[in-house]
């Protein structure tokens, strides 16, 4: 039997016809449907003719250019929308708000709670009342900054507001234009503040004179400056440190607002901590980050920015580190990715040697505070915990109101010797720092508790609570009886 070999010839499939065929079928169906609405029956060649017209080179090129134009327009709009205000606008608007102040302004080099070396007997019986509520144009992401006889609140309305104690309206305004998400700081009677949200780019650090209220200039980055700036002092030198997101960290001369050094070791949204000639910083994974960055704890030389040591963290570190004796401790936990990992890692300040590690079942994304060498942490779902900095043992952990995206930290009231914690949705909690017991829980009478992300500021007139729903509350807590708990 004669077998005739069959030749097989590879064929090139014109793949461009596949989407065009789909387009043709869709157009045909659409044209037929629209015609049917008007009682018209198309001839078979009608859609075919339309399809032939649409496939002409001139039509295809026009359609391509139109799509490029639309895409470019959307990109340009988003780019422009996330830029900071033009500087000439800031100068013009602040000129309208200039007002001389006769107050003196002590330095507030970083918006961080003080370390409490020893706690006294906590007050267990409290009477809590709201003495005033101030409505502002938009809410505040950060807590109030106390500065002598006045206090400052940054707002989403594009202003830093200055209030006198007892005042029901701002004493002065400092115009930035974009959302002012970070808290301001003060050095040599100058106010320094960043701006923006995560999408902001080319954000700045601004400088205002607190005596005259005058705008004195700014330093520009390529990222966003939503973390609070920090002024560090070492061997007679003062430097202003700004975290700029994916643009890393800048060290700036606060007098001239010029760059001294710049380092990029990851996405930096946390304020730095300065101690003994070293600058400590944590990094994290930003939105849409497909593992392109890892998270690190890093120590830099103060004056040069030279890297002294770096250690990888289990997760992102979004809040400034804290110091316990000879160690520096970083909290960690993811914000932009679902995760059940959080905790604290402590390292020797000089060498970076690991000292203590604590793993927590939820992201820890609030500023840690230190009480009697223990670390008070607040997590993403509303737990407040006291952790030993020596061995990582949990001394106590207390659940407040359950809510996701809780960013506020607890604050220590040195007069009442209690911890004050503003939950995101469930009111104000007062805790015994020794055992974590809830001493009191307060919600406003006849008024809803507004979503709160900022820590409470402990002032001479009471607790100042700022929320993201346009209000500032002044709350007074006093002892209702004289009894105290016995010492441990």
Notes on the structure:
With 488 residues, the chain is mainly beta. The protein has a domain at 22-81. Helices cover 14% and strands 34% of the residues. The strands form eight sheets. The protein has a four-stranded antiparallel β-sheet, with no helix packed on it. Strands 2-3-4-5 form a four-stranded antiparallel β-sheet. A four-stranded antiparallel β-sheet has the order 6-7-8-9, with helices on one face. Strand 30 and strand 31 form a beta hairpin. Helix 1 packs across helix 2 (45-54). The longest helix has 25 residues, at 57-81.
Question: What spatial order of strands do you see in the largest sheet?
Answer: 1-32-31-30
What number is the mean pLDDT? Answer: 87
**Low-pLDDT ranges:** 1-10, 12-17, 482-488
Radius of gyration: 29 Å
Please state the structural category. mainly beta
Outline:
14% of the residues lie in helices and 34% in strands. It has 488 residues and is mainly beta.
